[in-house]
Design a protein that fits this description.
This protein is mainly alpha-helical. It is about 40% helix and about 5% strand. The longest helix has 22 residues, at about 20-45.
Length: about 100
């Protein structure tokens, strides 16, 4: 079906701002040709009776309802903290 040649792959690489060696061009040309051929084969499949989907598996939303719940007391939350300042965690400064 598709027959990408070395010059076309070099042009694609140039447009993608990729600098490829001659050996890389020789190796990538048949690989990209196979990918384009596969995409063309997929495009030829009749999908008129297939419903579009966002995920291959029938995923069920596993999140709980957003309801208020009791959280840890301040002392429990800070119990394993290496540093604290009053009722807050103390961490090294990210920016000077």
């Amino acid at each position: 079906m598709s027959t990408l040649n070395r010059e076309q792959v070099a042009r694609i690489a140039h447009l993608a701002r990729l600098e490829l060696t001659p050996a890389e061009l020789d190796g990538l040309t048949p690989q990209l040709d196979a990918i384009v051929d596969y995409v063309q084969r997929l495009s030829a499949v009749d999908t008129t009776d297939i419903e579009p989907l966002a995920h291959a598996l029938d995923v069920i939303d596993a999140f709980r309802e957003d309801e208020p719940v009791r959280s840890l007391a301040v002392e429990q939350a800070l119990a394993n903290s290496p540093g604290r300042r009053g009722p807050c965690f103390s961490v090294p400064a990210a920016l000077e």
